[in-house]
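Consider the tokenized backbone below.
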């Protein structure tokens, strides 16, 4: 728990009575060493400390380890501080003043402190960081990231559609939102493609959501609408994945988790907005009830869809949600989904693919991602590929006729269901770290969430 890692207190004498870690850049190293006690400065020089990124040096004192130096290199985003919680000795530490962004430092410390320990204790307790009330925004972002990581890391046998739906409505209720869940016959009527995808599982599909407004918001305040792909496990359906392809499919609800984490940050910050959240919670399984290749599905928008591949289910889960949300004319409609392997082939695991119908929003999202070290990379909604979705028996197919540009054609499929003129951004995420890195432990990851928050604040909350 973050409460164990971030004590909101300092010693009676202030932070200077705690062991301090001093962040330092190479250009400032000589000045920092000159200010240290002579023995510690000599030790740092003898150890060859050069203030390289993520370089940590523990400094000795009369009673053991007295302090530490952290190299920032030429960077300084949150991940520069991501190794501290696991590398520093146990106990409470304070960040010494310096030329760095304290909010990024606190966030980075927290991101690196996280470990999923629901079933197996972490190898060691992380170090603690003394914080003050001014660190509240960074702490709130860390709490949202931890929530998202916990959701993605939870095994699918413990987090099915019903449980994910309850997480969504429970989050809304804690923040005073109006919540709802749609199931059974009502789901078939309102969200027929969600129902079709989830029909093969013994765990029934659910669409959950909530609406919220900040205390300063009015009926005329900007509306942000969020939609998340919540496929709690994806077997591929009748187009069955190989066993190796299923190993991480508990993470296929990473888009829904990210949407909920973003909503949590918006509500905790009490932004002067109206917020609408929808999460499609399903399991894509194989059974006598499961949808099949070449089935034709009806959709909320009225378009008919031929199923070219049952493993392209995420876009089917989202298309009805996007149709409903876009009809409310939001100022921004954003969906998050672990949608295509093609995006990972193009951009790798660290860069979510951004597709956007509005140039100003695209620029804002990309700029925010760079600014808060939560990067995105834009891919095109290339109209020339739209005809690849044509079907001889339905209005469109859920997969393209050509084995190329899979992330692009998936986005083009979903664009077909939007109301004209919708400001829409689609994020194709990986939502996973394949290995441990500073601030990014192996397992589920909240990608692009902080970037979207920063872009929403910049465009909709600063007038």
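A designed sequence for it:
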């Amino acid at each position: 728990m973050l409460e164990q890692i971030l004590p909101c207190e300092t010693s009676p004498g202030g932070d200077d009575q705690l062991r301090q870690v001093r962040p330092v850049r190479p250009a400032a190293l000589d000045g920092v060493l000159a200010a240290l006690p002579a023995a510690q400065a000599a030790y740092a020089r003898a150890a060859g400390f050069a203030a390289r990124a993520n370089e940590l040096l523990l400094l000795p004192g009369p009673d053991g380890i007295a302090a530490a130096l952290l190299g920032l290199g030429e960077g300084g985003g949150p991940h520069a501080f991501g190794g501290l919680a696991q590398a520093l000795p146990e106990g409470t530490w304070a960040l010494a003043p310096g030329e760095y962004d304290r909010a990024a430092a606190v966030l980075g410390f927290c991101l690196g402190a996280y470990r999923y320990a629901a079933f197996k204790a972490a190898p060691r307790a992380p170090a603690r960081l003394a914080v003050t009330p001014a660190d509240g925004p960074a702490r709130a972002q860390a709490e949202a990231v931890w929530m998202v990581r916990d959701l993605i890391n939870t095994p699918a046998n413990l987090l099915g559609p019903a449980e994910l739906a309850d997480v969504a409505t429970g989050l809304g209720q804690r923040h005073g939102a109006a919540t709802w869940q749609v199931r059974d016959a009502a789901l078939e009527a309102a969200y027929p493609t969600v129902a079709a995808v989830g029909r093969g599982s013994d765990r029934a599909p659910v669409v959950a959501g909530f609406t919220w407004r900040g205390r300063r918001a009015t009926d005329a305040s900007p509306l942000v609408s969020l939609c998340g792909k919540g496929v709690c496990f994806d077997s591929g359906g009748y187009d069955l994945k190989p066993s190796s392809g299923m190993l991480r499919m508990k993470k296929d609800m990473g888009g829904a988790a990210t949407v909920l984490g973003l909503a949590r940050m918006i509500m905790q910050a009490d932004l002067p907005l109206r917020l609408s959240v929808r999460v499609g919670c399903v399991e894509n399984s194989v059974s006598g009830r499961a949808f099949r290749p070449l089935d034709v599905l009806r959709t909320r928008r009225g378009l008919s869809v031929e199923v070219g591949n049952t493993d392209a289910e995420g876009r089917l889960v989202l298309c009805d949600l996007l149709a409903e949300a876009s009809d409310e004319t939001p100022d921004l409609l954003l969906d998050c989904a672990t949608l295509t392997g093609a995006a990972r082939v193009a951009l790798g695991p660290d860069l979510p693919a951004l597709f956007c119908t509005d140039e100003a929003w695209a620029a804002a999202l990309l700029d925010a991602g760079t600014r808060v070290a939560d990067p995105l990379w834009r891919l095109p909604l290339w109209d020339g590929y739209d005809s690849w979705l044509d079907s001889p028996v339905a209005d469109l197919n859920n997969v393209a006729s050509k084995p190329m540009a899979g992330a692009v054609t998936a986005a083009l499929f979903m664009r077909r269901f939007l109301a004209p003129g919708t400001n829409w951004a689609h994020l194709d995420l990986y939502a996973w770290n394949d290995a441990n890195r500073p601030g990014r432990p192996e397992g589920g990851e909240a990608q692009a969430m902080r970037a979207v928050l920063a872009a929403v604040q910049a465009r909709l909350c600063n007038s």
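The domain at 2-131 is CATH 3.40.220.10 (Leucine Aminopeptidase, subunit E; domain 1).
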